[in-house]
Write a structure and sequence with these properties.
The structure is a homodimer of 433-residue chains.
Chain A: E1 4-9, H1 13-24, H2 26-33, E2 37-43, E3 57-59, H3 62-66, E4 73-76, H4 84-93, E5 97-100, H5 103-119, E6 124-125, H6 136-143, E7 149-155, H7 158-170, H8 174-184, H9 192-195, H10 198-212, E8 222-223, H11 231-239, E9 242-253, E10 256-267, E11 279-286, E12 290-297, H12 301-320, E13 349-358, H13 364-374, E14 379-384, E15 392-398, E16 401-402, H14 403-414, E17 419-428
Parallel strand pairs in A: 1-2, 1-4, 2-3, 4-5, 5-6, 8-10, 10-17
Antiparallel strand pairs in A: 7-9, 7-11, 9-10, 11-12, 13-15, 13-16, 13-17, 14-15
Chain lengths: 433, 433
């Protein structure tokens, strides 16, 4: 079979990593595909000091790659919305297959991109968009295809997981660890995307569509970051046998689909509670297979390149059959997508960890438990901690309750004269059902 | 697209599970494939009380299924060598695709089966042969296809892992836990296949071929069971910061391929050291992706059915393209298989845990360390344990050394007058490189 010619647009960390993996492992990859993958052209703003590109053709115009007739597959690694969207749509209209690592674009405009791909009989692959080198998209599209997926829970943002791990291991404050993460290059100068959960929400949106066969609907994802988590919360969770992780959670319920990113207490005995530092992991529960876990590096030049190149190998294997995509873009056939609604957060049921500052007066805990009880919220555990001066912190672990009732309860508790300031609320998941 | 008609041969645990998953999830599966999968015929010796097969056609002759012209895919779930081999070869010659869970047959006769499949342009899939519901075969054939795989380490036999977990958690003896495992149905009446590592060796043989592109060569796999592990060894390992796991390990070295199943000390901080009970996990290290882990149920009716049905979905998706297998059976193209030799155990380098009973005489430890030192074996740690009477146990943790030199050293140590009985030797892997 003839060589497959590809073009790479964007030659930063992931672009350079992709080029290097393709060069270094060219023999091993050709042993798998039966034909070589040749980088025909690279669109770059500046050279990448980690790559020796020899006399590979370069350009500073990404659209030159999309219009290069010798190129069969365009690899989009420039990121962001525009001009990435125009680039991908141009490539598709020109009959090129596309491999992308662009999670924001897929999560927010994937429905439109996949429709164009179907209309033009080309493949758009995006394994690198979620959890770096972990082949979680292939797993959901193909490996678990026998299952009704019940739920997924993922640590899918390395920056947040690094910060929470450091806060726990060294009893440090959020702001302090964030600064270190920025110095280490694990966090951006503006860390909002990572620590406020937007990046995780992009990835979770994609995973939910693959799991349940629903259109991508990023705007409906509930998103809450970790910037309000205190070292005290981390320690309290530990004493209760839990760890705080920034989880993306999506679950199918009779009423609709839960789609939410927020800090979560999970039992320390769970394997996923032991995923530390910048590592990622996704726990997937299917009705036949039960719980399965997928773990690996969620970012970095070569782990991400591993996913980009695996997509290229898939495209080449499909091209060898001279046909369009064997597996639908979102795992389910286009006509078979479901209109299950995404649930508003108020309709979701979880257990809760509550932390409140109480002025030590008789009766205040009775008032708090009455407020919870009136709304059908049962208490699993309550701890009043030793403290040198008023107000004293009180920790309550509840049984599962609907978010709506908890919202009402928190408003009522905060209105009590003997409660100082706001009530901290972190959701709790046992991850065993 | 028309329905795909399949035949199931063998209707025990996995056969029944496969039938039930296909029935229960028929809508979800058709949403993924675009066409229904219909069970046309079942070959069974007796009815399965867990299944309502309605008026599905049955037979007690498996070859009737292989010769049924309406059937496109034969699902072989009878296990064992014969008549499974004849059944699969008949189906292939009749132009049928085959899905099998038969690890022994693939590990020992897969080369022949895959050659017949290529000659007859049919697909033979076997995801269920390794680690039950974990899609590890798809991961190696497709998900990690960008990588030069460096090594794999797997807990791939649930019975052995259950026994070692119980020995550690409750400081119990091997024989005692084995008996309980037999009562719980986790171990067979004859447990040899599981506890002596033969089952794990079958699975590891398959994983190694997929990882490195070498022919299946089960006969060269080194196999050592867990029946000699004592509660004392488990406790000693714990004190040193390790856990004993029954690992299948395969590694590419400049000299050839390591292929070995044996009890292994691994650091307790490794995620895979925290895989407990009957659960399975495979750690895969690639040059681009680094270390990744895949965890889930390694056995049971529905987890195994999850893998069988995923293979069926793959076949259906390939058939929709009207072509033969898109991905080579052993991940690499047939002409690209490697003749890297499998290394004999004597040529393999690992660290070692040694336990020996020493009569408390001055100089004996000096003799032991001299014997090790003369063979270039360095000592990482040494512990002489308190004991009420002679001889006393001495534990030595060594740095990595070639097995051949360790074999010689152990012979020399056992010959010392002040050493009582045999030296216990368990290999140690750090799993971080």
């Amino acid at each position: 079979m003839q060589a497959i010619r590809i073009g790479i647009c964007g030659f930063g960390t992931v672009g350079g990593g992709t080029f290097n993996v393709l060069q270094r492992n060219s023999n091993e990859i050709a042993r798998r595909t039966g034909c070589p993958i040749v980088v025909e052209q690279i669109a770059m703003r500046r050279t990448n000091p980690n790559c020796n590109i020899g006399n590979t053709m370069t350009t500073d115009d990404i659209f030159e790659v999309a219009n290069n007739a010798t190129i069969a597959v365009l690899v989009e690694l420039i990121g962001g919305h525009q001009p990435a969207m125009d680039l991908i749509m141009t490539a598709i209209k020109n009959g090129k297959h596309v491999v992308t690592a662009n999670k924001a674009l897929i999560a927010e405009h994937g429905n439109e991109i996949f429709a164009a791909a179907r209309a033009n009989n080309v493949i758009v692959s995006y394994e690198a968009a979620v959890a770096g080198g972990i082949p979680i998209i292939k797993t959901l599209r193909e490996g678990l295809s026998a299952n009704n997926i019940n739920w997924l829970a993922g640590i899918i943002n390395g920056t947040s997981n690094f910060i929470l791990t450091q806060m726990r291991d060294h009893t440090r404050a959020f702001a302090d660890v964030l600064q270190e993460a920025q110095q280490l290059g694990y966090a951006e100068a503006d860390p909002t995307f990572d620590v406020e959960g937007i990046d995780a929400a992009h990835k979770l949106t994609i995973l939910a569509s693959l799991a349940f066969g629903i259109p991508l609907q990023f705007s409906k994802c509930y998103t809450e970051g970790i910037s309000q988590i205190t070292a005290e919360d981390v320690t309290n969770a530990e004493k209760l046998g839990y760890r705080i992780k920034h989880l993306g959670l999506t679950r199918r319920t009779p009423d609709g689909i839960e789609l939410r990113v927020h800090p979560t207490l999970i039992p320390e005995k769970c394997l996923i509670a032991n995923v530390h530092g910048v590592m990622n992991a996704v726990l997937a529960n299917g009705d036949a297979v039960g719980s399965t876990l997928y773990y690996g590096a969620g970012a970095g030049a070569e782990p991400t390149a591993s996913a980009v190149v695996a997509d290229l190998v898939d495209v080449v294997r499909d091209l060898a059959l001279d046909s369009d995509s064997r597996v639908p873009s979102l795992a389910f056939q286009q006509g078979a997508l479901s209109d299950s609604p995404v649930l508003p957060m108020s309709q979701i049921t979880t257990a809760f960890y509550l932390r409140m500052m109480v002025r030590e007066r008789p009766g205040v805990l009775a008032q708090v438990t009455r407020i919870l009880g009136e709304r059908g919220i049962s208490i699993e555990a309550i701890q009043q901690q030793e403290h040198h001066c008023e107000p004293v912190p009180v920790i309550i672990l509840t049984r599962p309750a609907k978010e709506q009732f908890m919202n009402e309860a928190i408003v009522a508790i905060e209105a009590l004269a003997d409660i100082a300031g706001e009530v901290t609320r972190i959701r709790v998941e046992e991850l065993d059902s």
